[in-house]
């Protein structure tokens, strides 16, 4: 029997027209599988969408869910007839008129389990997953609510040695399940070519990777990248999407300030150790001002202050720390949504964001989802809490003794981000992660003291309400050196009335009081570095990670860059470092 089948196949192939290898392989693919017709239909929504490719044209139909199927099928058939009529008119205008022939309408039907679906059935019921749409001789496999990319973008700036993380959002699927294939263009890209346009020939690209994140090498410089990604939900897949980079990969800056630090953080820590980072990443709205370019950072190359360039460095730096908890300050809202979230999600972290009122930047906290589960957030604007929450009434009354100081404090949009996480390795164990960026002015010590007083009372209250006994990890840019009142309040739990910071902005805004913390003395996990901020006019320690020493202990502090490294380009930021601050990174261990 096999011999007869072999002979029949031989005779069949001899009778086939003379196809080119490419045409023949395409024919085989069409024989072996149907194209997809993707249907999006959700309960409660009045419309559904039907998407498929017909005669090289992508069709996207928006129809009522309660409309009879027959109207959709007729619309498809009429659309084909209209296109055929246009084609005939075009031939006639070119002098290629053919004898009029009454074209038979294209048969359009929908089948389910081999049976034709009646045209009276409503769309919501008719378009079932696995049904078959027949349009003339072409058949489509209907995928209802298949995994679909609602957002799929590549970053604009690509640097050799720096991770490329696509921004992806999937409906009816999971980004972690998606499949990825990266390609490099075979010919160097020239600026005259249309941006983002892929070559029509597959031979123009060479596969270079198959992970969600691709790190271009020096061999990729001057070449564009293409990503083919398939949305999936488990084993169920949707329509693949191709993304082509706008420009070519460019050379990176070489050695960065954080590269040597990554040697200490090459792997994710093992439980019960938790790696924490606090980092002011310098908001773009501050880096791009004339003041920044001409007064604050005149030593920094202008291109190194550009957001696209700095984002590459920030993403590589954060990814290389392999942290479990990341607290960031001065995070542009767009940077959080379009850059940090896609990048850090690819490296296993989820995030929450608190934007400053009347600002376009704020605070971001990320946590490793394999280690922690988000329980709740309890963010506040400190000035608003001071003026409206009864728990701060006593402090407000003392501040009100000086109207000028009170008004200055209430005008500030400083926020406190409070995030409760649960340890997945030990269910029931919780941690409170706080993140803030206090008032910046060098003479604002009194403002910062009041802001910290509000923050500590709020933290004490929410910990007792949400997770009694949960340890506190308090990160941030406190804009306070170790001799400031804020540091004393955190480390000693009290600031006396005679502290110099109470009159830091002059006698007209002086307000002396004893300020007590509702939280026991905290420990600066990274000690007291000589500097965490290094610019031409100032070098000092402004950033901290505070912990409760009775709950956690410091296992390792990642060394900060040496003075020689920091001053390679005079000061920060530079072509080798994206911010004027340096990230604090430490490994903490739960106490037994």
From TrEMBL:
The keyword Nuclease applies. It comes from the Eukaryota. Its main location: mitochondrion. Its cofactor is Mg(2+). Residues 278-581 form the Endonuclease/exonuclease/phosphatase domain. Keywords: Exonuclease, Hydrolase, Magnesium, Metal-binding, Mitochondrion, mRNA processing, Nuclease, Phosphoprotein, Transit peptide. Transmembrane segments: none annotated. Residues 147-250 form the 2',5'-phosphodiesterase 12-like N-terminal domain. Coiled coil: none annotated. One of its GO terms (cellular component) is mitochondrial matrix. Residues 82-104 are annotated as: Disordered. Belongs to the CCR4/nocturin family. PANTHER family: 2',5'-PHOSPHODIESTERASE 12, CARBON CATABOLITE REPRESSOR PROTEIN 4. This is 2',5'-phosphodiesterase 12.
């Amino acid at each position: 029997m096999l011999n007869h089948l072999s002979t029949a196949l031989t005779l069949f192939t001899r009778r086939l027209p003379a196809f080119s290898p490419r045409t023949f392989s395409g024919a085989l693919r069409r024989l072996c599988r149907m194209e997809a017709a993707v249907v999006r239909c959700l309960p409660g929504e009045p419309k559904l969408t039907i998407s498929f490719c017909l005669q090289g044209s992508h069709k996207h139909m928006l129809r009522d869910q309660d409309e009879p199927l027959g109207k959709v099928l007729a619309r498809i058939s009429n659309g084909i007839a209209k296109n055929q009529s246009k084609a005939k008119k075009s031939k006639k205008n070119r002098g290629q008129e053919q004898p009029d022939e009454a074209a038979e309408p294209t048969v359009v039907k929908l089948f389910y389990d081999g049976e034709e679906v009646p045209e009276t059935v409503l769309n919501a019921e008719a378009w079932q997953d696995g049904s078959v749409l027949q349009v003339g001789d072409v058949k489509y496999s209907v995928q209802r609510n298949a995994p679909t990319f609602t957002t799929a973008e590549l970053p604009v700036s690509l640097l050799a040695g720096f991770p490329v993380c696509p921004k992806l959002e999937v409906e009816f699927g999971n980004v972690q399940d998606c499949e990825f294939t990266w390609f490099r263009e075979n010919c160097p890209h020239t600026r005259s070519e249309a941006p983002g346009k892929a070559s029509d020939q597959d031979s123009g690209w060479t596969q270079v990777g198959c992970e969600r994140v691709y790190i271009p090498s020096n061999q990729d410089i001057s070449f564009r990248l293409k990503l083919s990604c398939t949305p999936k939900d488990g084993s169920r897949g949707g329509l693949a999407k191709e993304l082509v980079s706008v420009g070519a990969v460019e050379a990176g800056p070489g050695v960065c300030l954080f590269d040597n630090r990554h040697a200490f953080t090459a792997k994710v820590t093992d439980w019960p150790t938790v790696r924490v980072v606090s980092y002011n990443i310098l908001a773009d709205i501050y880096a791009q001002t004339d003041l920044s370019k001409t007064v604050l950072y005149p030593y920094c190359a202008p291109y190194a202050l550009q957001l696209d360039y700095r984002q590459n460095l920030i993403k590589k730096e954060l990814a290389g720390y392999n942290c479990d908890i990341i607290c960031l300050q001065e995070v542009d809202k767009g940077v959080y949504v379009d850059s940090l979230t896609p990048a850090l999600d690819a490296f296993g972290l989820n995030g929450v964001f608190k934007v400053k009122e009347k600002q376009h930047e704020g605070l971001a906290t990320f946590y490793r989802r394999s280690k922690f589960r988000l329980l709740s957030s309890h963010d506040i604007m400190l000035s608003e809490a001071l003026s409206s929450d009864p728990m701060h009434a006593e402090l407000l009354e003392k501040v009100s003794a000086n109207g000028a100081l009170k008004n200055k404090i209430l005008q500030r949009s400083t926020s406190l981000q409070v995030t409760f996480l649960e340890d997945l390795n030990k269910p029931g164990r919780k941690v409170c992660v706080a993140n803030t960026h206090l008032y910046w002015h060098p003479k604002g010590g009194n403002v910062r003291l009041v802001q910290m007083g509000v923050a500590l009372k709020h933290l004490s209250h929410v910990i007792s309400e949400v997770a009694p006994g949960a340890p506190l990890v308090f990160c941030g840019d406190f804009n306070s050196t170790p001799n400031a009142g804020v540091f004393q309040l955190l480390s000693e739990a009290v600031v006396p009335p005679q502290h110099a910071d109470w009159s830091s902005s002059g006698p007209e805004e002086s307000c002396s009081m004893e300020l007590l913390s509702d939280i026991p003395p905290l420990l600066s996990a990274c000690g007291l570095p000589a500097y965490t901020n290094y610019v031409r006019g100032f070098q000092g320690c402004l950033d901290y990670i505070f912990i409760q020493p009775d709950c956690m202990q410091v296992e390792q502090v990642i060394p900060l860059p040496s003075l020689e490294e920091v001053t390679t380009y005079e000061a920060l930021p530079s072509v080798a470092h994206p911010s004027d601050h340096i990230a604090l990174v430490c490994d903490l261990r739960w106490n037994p």
